[in-house]
């Protein structure tokens, strides 16, 4: 029987890449907005600024404690500002010592924290905006209340939520890619 035999042809090994070009252990490029990047630090600082702005505007009025939605906006703004400034400090540390903050456990905590603060901020901003519309348009009581301050605080909370959302989505995406 004449059967063909497999032939083995030697293949040259690819040249070794320079370690500076492709460092070992790097799985993905740094996407700006992820933890430990300058974009991530900028997002955290914007989140902090708008949370503090919403908190300051809402607490500058004397009658915010009379409405539960406004009290919950103050609580959410406090939580958002504390969370954002904590992670901003962590981002500054990571940038200074050139550390990667994308291990699985850290990403899980960042994602959960961002998800909770984003949901809470959005819910309280919606509730505050709804109560402000009720006071201003339906009850026509803006002359007795601080409607412009309430509207400004709700707007600051919405802008803060817009800054939290990319952080949450990037952390969730990074966690899902692992």
UniProtKB/TrEMBL annotation:
Keyword Membrane found: yes
Keyword annotations from UniProtKB, A to Z: Cell membrane, Membrane, Transmembrane, Transmembrane helix
Q: Name one GO cellular component term.
A: plasma membrane
Q: What is this protein called?
A: CASP-like protein
Where does the chain cross the membrane? Answer: 41-61, 67-95, 107-135, 155-176
Pfam families referenced in this protein's UniProt entry, alphabetically: CASP_dom
Give the Casparian strip membrane protein domain ranges.
36-163
Q: How does it assemble?
A: Homodimer and heterodimers.
Membrane topology recorded in Swiss-Prot or TrEMBL:
Multi-pass membrane protein
Protein's cellular compartments: Cell membrane
Which family does the entry's similarity section mention? Belongs to the Casparian strip membrane proteins (CASP) family.
InterPro entries named among the record's database cross-references: CASP_dom (IPR006702), CASPL-5 (IPR045009)
Q: Which domain of life is it from?
A: Eukaryota
Its predominant location is membrane
Q: Which region is the signal sequence? A: none
Species, as recorded: Musa balbisiana (Banana)
């Amino acid at each position: 029987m004449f059967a063909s035999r497999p032939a083995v042809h030697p293949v040259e090994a690819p040249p070794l890449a320079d370690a500076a070009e492709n460092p070992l252990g790097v799985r993905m490029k740094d996407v700006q907005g992820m933890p430990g990047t300058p974009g991530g630090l900028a997002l955290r600082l914007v989140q902090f600024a708008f949370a503090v702005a919403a908190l300051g505007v809402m607490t500058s009025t004397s009658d915010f404690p009379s409405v539960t939605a406004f009290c919950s906006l103050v609580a959410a703004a406090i939580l958002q500002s504390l969370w954002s400034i904590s992670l901003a400090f962590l981002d500054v540390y990571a940038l200074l010592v050139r550390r990667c903050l994308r291990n699985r456990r850290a990403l899980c905590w960042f994602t959960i924290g961002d998800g909770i603060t984003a949901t809470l901020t959005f819910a309280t901003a919606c509730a505050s905006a709804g109560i402000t519309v009720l006071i201003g348009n339906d009850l026509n009581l803006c002359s007795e209340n601080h409607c412009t301050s309430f509207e400004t605080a709700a707007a600051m909370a919405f802008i803060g939520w817009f800054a939290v959302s990319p952080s949450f989505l990037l952390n969730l995406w990074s966690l899902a890619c692992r």
